[in-house]
Amino acid sequence: MTCTTVRSKPFSKPSAVAAALSLLMVGVGTGPAAADPPAVATPAAPISTPLTNLAHLDFLLDTVPLNPVEGHTTYGLDTQPTAQAPWTYADRNADGSYRRVGGGSIDPATGYWTQGAYNADDIARTAVVYLRHWQQTGDTASREHAFQTLRSLTYLQTTTGPNAGNVVLWQQTDGTLTPSATPVELPDPSDSAESYWLARTVWALGEGYAAFESADPDFAGFLQGRLHLALESLNKQSLGRYGSYDVADGTKVPAWLIAGGADASAEAVLGLSAYSQAEPSDGMATAALTRLSEGIAEMSSGSVDRWPFGAIMPWNKSQTLWHAWGGMAPAAVATASTVLHREDLLAAAVKDTAQFTPQLLAAGGPDNAWSPTPGEAQIAYGVDSRVQSLVATAKAGDAPGLLDVAAVTAGWFFGANRSNSPAYNPATGTAVDGIERDGRVNPNSGAESTIHALLTMLALDANPTLKTKALGINKTVSTNGISVVEAESGSIAGSGSVVKPASAWTGEANYSGGAYVALEPGASLSIQVPGADQERNVYPIINQGMAPSGTTIWAAGKVQLGATANGGVGAQGITEAAGKLSPLALHQSLPARADEVVGKTNGAALIDALLIQPLISSVSVTGSAGDSTLYVSAANETLVQKVDVPLGFVIQQQAYDSSGKSLAPNRNALGLDKSGRVTIAPGGFTVVQLVRK
Q: Which of 259, 504, 569 is nearest to 373 (CA)?
């Protein structure tokens, strides 16, 4: 069975989200228990050898003939009739080499790929890699590759007619454009409306202008003109609705996000931030940057003890689907907050990185989606999005604790993942295309995985201390975080049944396990849950209808946990399905050692599962830097965790508050403690390392 991340991009919502998320697996992965003696933390000097290796990305690049056609041209086309673009995929051969592959299949009649060989999404992000490498190292080859990929990208941008400013997604090896691909992707044709590839074009154009402004002013001027063309198109579309709101399951959502997403908008904001730093007087760009950043920040949702725990939600048509395709939203608003001098924008980035991301890691690592339960494979795109966001928010918010979280996250590339093997090879520059929940690896190394692995490596190379920490982590020892117990595993008393819908996908979320329990008024559901030595937050996942339908009262023995509404979410609005499948918070935590939760309803109720969250979650990792554990709080008060300290060792702990800022270390100036008492701040996290006495 191949990894679900194969051919996972480009995608447009909702069709590709449904396709990808319909393959979700149930449960939360937990690494094997540690069997070896504790690894000792030893001081490490920053590692000077670069991690960024562009060899595989160079291999993916091809020369593309650019034929003059109506509405499509580029810089210097009369003297340079070719440019460069990366192949979309690279499949691994039995001998360890790779073969370049396009999207879809080859049409025997035309010899064309049914999608294309190259695509605007990957061309744009490839340009960003080369731009950043050139700026970081001065490498002249990277400058040339950046120049040529930007020429290729701008050729795909439509320059005339009603679609001017939009971008064609696919291109064949002979330069022929494929406006309408097979299978159909939205928008269709791909330049008929705004899109993810338009947003990523803005990203590359903005960073391209900033890099070439002094080095090649004429080319920078060309990029500036194309950026304005893109913004003019956006101003006629989503940005033209700035300040207006749609309704999604009774909740107001911003109507001016690109393609309805904080995800797409975030990548545009990265480019606009770079551009606006270079050209602060450009009113059109500043307005777009401001408006998109405000819209992204408004998609922040939840809190320490409310799902999704501070995450910035990616799609305005779903309140309960979080995913990391295009998961740069925290990085975007953190960066924009500095460029625009808007500290209010930073709050959304802080909640996402300091509260949600540690919970994500403790629940089994950087899964690429919660819908609303964890269940997706892990890919370089999602991991890189977390790393970029943690680094950007740490800088903007002066929050050093986020760099410790970034080190654990980046350790995924070096073996701290479900496969216990490296996902990136610095000797070749290849990155695996994904790791499944059971540890199976997709060994291919397509453009997207390569690009985002390299973006992380560039970030690490630019931050030597973070790089040293991340390289010191190569195995996840264990995770203890959010888990799922299916409602259909419980016992029904009264009138009720287990329902298995034709599809787990509702149009905006997934039924966990592909089933749910339907209860009639007066019925109850008893669900066995694993016992634990600590209290836990319980979130019943209810598919709430639009109209009120009574409540379900939840209890554990004699302890009343709280009530959840069976309906009453309000108007469906722009969502794809009536009702909202949502984890709902209870006012009382589940007592330690309690092993049964009972819900009794006085109305019709659709119950999918229970989401169980320890008040103290953890992820333990190891490697050359020694054993360390990240303890994460889901409580609104200070908690203390007692841990075993091996003979001859003490623990070194550093606590951070719910924004990632440092708190005073325990016991002494070094944070050394032999008592084994770990203190975790309300909603914060603490990093603990074993140190030999």
A: 504
